[in-house]
Amino acid sequence: MASDPDLPPLPSYSLAPLPPLLSPIPDGILVLICPVVAYWVVSMFFHWIDVNDYFSQYRLHTPAEVLKRNRVTRWEVVRDVIIQQIIQTAFGFGLYFFDGTAQVGREEYDTMVWATRIRLAQRILPRILSVVGVDAVGLAGKLSGYPILAGALSGGHYPFLIQKVVSPSGSIAFAPAFAAWELFAARAIYWYILPAVQFVLATLFVDTWQYFLHRAMHMNKWLYTTFHSRHHRLYVPYAFGALYNHPFEGFLLDTAGTGLAYLITGMTTRQAMWFFTCSTIKTLDDHCGYAFPFDPLQHLTSNNAAYHDIHHQSWGIKTNFSQPFFTFWDRLLNTRWNGDVTLRYERSRLAAQKLINEDTAGAAATQPNEEITPDEHTSDPSDNSNIIDGAATLSRSEEENLSSRNILPRSVRRKTNPFSPQTESRKGLSHGLGGSIRQK
User: Which of 153, 186, 219 is the last residue of a domain?
Assistant: First the structure.
């Protein structure tokens, strides 16, 4: 490329292993650790909000719904998420084992390659201007007081830009040099624009991959029953249930999808750290169960917690397949939910609260009958064996019910208030709730 005598020569370079970002952990291992750490740190933050009943005005569902509508225990969710993360990490470690060590040293060379491309692109400018009747060379002559602008208009000719070049033998020669603006533009492309384009292309690939596989999981009865139905045991999603899937589905949709996006877009390992971690956090946010007006992830794109929550409801399960970034496939293929959902959410809240109230009333009704009286066939009234045996018969389901109820002590028994009057926000593209579920 730089053999043209009118082009600045490209610099030489030598490669060396890239030092790890966080010594002594190799970058290839750190890229596997970051998403797992992010998953549990962020999800536990949302769980902390749940158990302390903070920001209840932004809940998509009440704690009563979490308790009564879901068909899987929290411990089963944690177990399956850990299984998926083990598979994900093992797959990533296999790629790391066969992948070469990242090298450093040719960054300046690659930047100059982009500067050369910019210089070559300027040669087309006179032809483009001639199409609209502008004499680029003549115009450049009138702009002699602005030599850089004149050089660009004339096709990238900068005879006044000269640099001193020292050859390997030690001799000195003079060669063309790049303009300052060309170097600035080249560095911006190499360090910022190109990584941003790679990131966006990767998100588009993941969205496309997940949309069609996710939709197939719903349209094919065998795929849904065998694999995807497990994820939909969570009618009321919460953050650490984001990756609650069948192991095969988790590998196919999440691990394989993001892995292919990384390979196809040509990301570096450090770019992959950002991409995998951001994808994980976005997935958590989509399952967090809150519509925060101050959460940037819920406003950057139209795909957010409120949008995806509709898909988790029995009446919206065949819509809103897009995840985790954008919603363009739902719009293009007419699978986006349309219409107001306020009354549907209100019915779910009232039904769950009714079950809680019935449980509370039933427990209160049995309270007087728990007084222990001496057995007429027992010679020693002070014998406590009957009480102990009775306590031991507490069923596993009752224990889990009690445990779950204690997780959310302050808000489960709260009377259900009417759904927010701010229903218009449910009808928009984002299905956002901006303070939508208000408990007065």
Answer: 186
Residue-number span of the structural domain to which 119 is assigned: 113-186
Q: pLDDT tens, 43-53?
A: 999 999 999 99
Query: Within a domain: residue 378?
Result: no
Strands 103-104 and 16-17: what pairing?
Answer: antiparallel
The Cα–Cα gap between 377 and 397 comes to 32
Same domain, 124 and 86: no
**Can you say whether the dihedral through the CA atoms of 10, 15, 19, 20 is positive or negative?**
positive
DSSP lists the bridge partners of residue 175 as 163
> For tokens 């190799």, what's the residue?
26
Domain membership of residue 85 (yes or no) is yes
Q: Is residue 153 located within the same domain as residue 215?
A: no
Residue whose C-alpha is closest to residue 176's, from 137, 126, 120, 128: 120
- Paired with 172 in beta bridges are 166
**Lowest-confidence segment of 76-80, 134-138, 194-198, 395-399 by average pLDDT:** 395-399
Among residues 186, 208, 230, the one where a domain terminates is: 186
Per residue in 350-406, pLDDT (tens digit) is 999 999 888 888 888 877 655 544 444 444 444 443 433 433 333 444 444 444 444
